[in-house]
Structure formats: structure tokens, C-alpha cells
Amino acid sequence: MTQKTKWRQVAPDTWWRIPFIVGYSLTFLVVAALGAANGAIQFAWSTATVAAIAYFHYRVKTIGIYTSDSGVRLRGLARSRELGWAEVAEFFHLPSHYLGFEPVRGSIWVVLEDGEEIETPVKALPEGDPPGNTTAILAELNGEARQAHARIAAAAKFG
Question: Does pTM top 0.85 for this prediction?
Fold first, then answer.
């Protein structure tokens, strides 16, 4: 039997989950009641619309960087990417350039062991932006990477 990976969101903060669940639960109840009163087709379209909007909002709200004992998950709007700790060299902050415009915010980037740089979906200013202090987030991510590399080296030494 495989063990389920427990992911912990590092950035941005996750204060929104309870209001999100309560809000969409109430919305589904209201839409179901109104849709049922107007017929089966209206009920189906209303429910499907609310479900699609809820899924989109959920993906937007869960964008971030997640860590576990096995690695890092970069969760974007359309897809997620998982990297093992052995693949990750470090994390850093750089400005983000979109369509040649001057950067307004930066992104947290991941450098892989092979030198490839991956821009994460987390956008933040260098210091004190509302999603969190980027310097503290980078320190936490790089600290976790160092600990994971130490575990990997210890396992290779004794294994």
C-alpha cells in the first residue's frame, strides 16, 4: 500500500479556505433550489455553471508552492508540476517580464540541479508584500531544500 504524500503550502498563505467552502456550499444550495423550481434543464445548467466557477476559483486560490518530505509541488492555474528534492538546487526571486513590459512584481524561481530555471506561479515583491515576506519564504524553501539534500546524502552514505 502506498503512503499518501502530505503537502504543506508555503506560499501564499491559506486563510481563504473556510470562507470559500462555506460560500460555495451556500451557493450550491441556492442554485439547486432555484434551478429545481424552474425545471430539470435549468437546474442542470445552473449547477454546472456554479461547479465550473467554483473549480476555477479553487484553482486560483490554490496557486502556490507546496512542499513535502518527497519534494516540491508548483501549482499553477492550469497544471501542477512536482519536483523531487534531489532535482532542486535552490530558490530565488527575480522580476517577471510579461510581453516585454517592465516588471511590476517578481516571481519565486526554482533552479534545478541541471541548471534549468523554472518560474513558479507565486508572484511577490522582494519585501513585505501582502502574500508574505518573500525573503522569509525563500529562506524557508532553501532551508527545506538543504535539509532534504542532507537526508538524501545520509541515506546514500548508509544505503
Answer: no
